[in-house]
Amino acid sequence: MVNNSKEVQVKLMKGLLDLIVLQFLSSQPMHGYQIITKIRKAFGVYFGPSTIYPLLGTLEKKGHVKSEWNLSNERPRKVYTLTSEGQNLLNFTEDSLNLICRKIGTNGFSNNGLTEKHMQPALRPFMKKIENSKRLI
């Protein structure tokens, strides 16, 4: 059962990875390695550079993030910032996810956090991790 739970969590993470990246960038500009580290700390799942950087490139091409080189440190870093279009997409995606959660028997996210009482048992661990990651921001 533990392997199945982890498999489901990783699958959900892959599907929501753009939402998670946009959520992290909504709090502050970050470079790719910071995003990789935050995902690993918040969710216990490792998505490496070969996953994150192409995703950031796609988000940039679509106008959801913009990048700028930070040359002030020893090591130059490309820093990504959420655009207004990205914030709109983030808001829409969060609303859509909440609607889906309500449709499948959960209350989704509320301003006060998740309400476990009405949540499907299989979704509780994953939804808690999403909620906890929002608190880290």
Written overview of the protein:
The protein is of the alpha+beta class and 137 residues long. The chain has helices spanning 2-27, 32-43, 49-61, 84-103, 124-136, and strands spanning 30-31, 65-70, 77-82, 109-110, 113-114. A three-stranded antiparallel β-sheet has the order 1-3-2. A two-stranded antiparallel sheet has the order 4-5. Helix 1 (2-27) packs parallel to helix 5 (124-136) and helix 2 packs across helix 3 (49-61). The longest helix has 26 residues, at 2-27. Mean pLDDT is 83; it is low at 111-120.
Helices and strands, with pairings:
Blueprint: H1 2-27, E1 30-31, H2 32-43, H3 49-61, E2 65-70, E3 77-82, H4 84-103, E4 109-110, E5 113-114, H5 124-136
Antiparallel strand pairs: 1-3, 2-3, 4-5
Helix pairs in contact: 1-4, 1-5, 2-3, 2-5
CATH class: Mainly Alpha
Instruction: Estimate the mean pLDDT confidence.
Output: 83
CATH third-level topology: Arc Repressor Mutant, subunit A
Q: What is the tally of helical segments?
A: 5
Number of individual domains? 1
Overall shape: it is globular
Give the name of the CATH architecture: Orthogonal Bundle
SS class: alpha+beta
Strand order of the largest sheet: 1-3-2
**Helical coverage, percent range:** 55-70%
Q: Which regions are unreliable across 5 or more consecutive residues at pLDDT < 50?
A: 111-120
Q: Hey, roughly how much beta strand do the residues contain?
A: 5-15%
Order of helices and strands: HEHHEEHEEH
Distance between the termini: 31 Å
- What is the CATH superfamily label? Winged helix-like DNA-binding domain superfamily/Winged helix DNA-binding domain
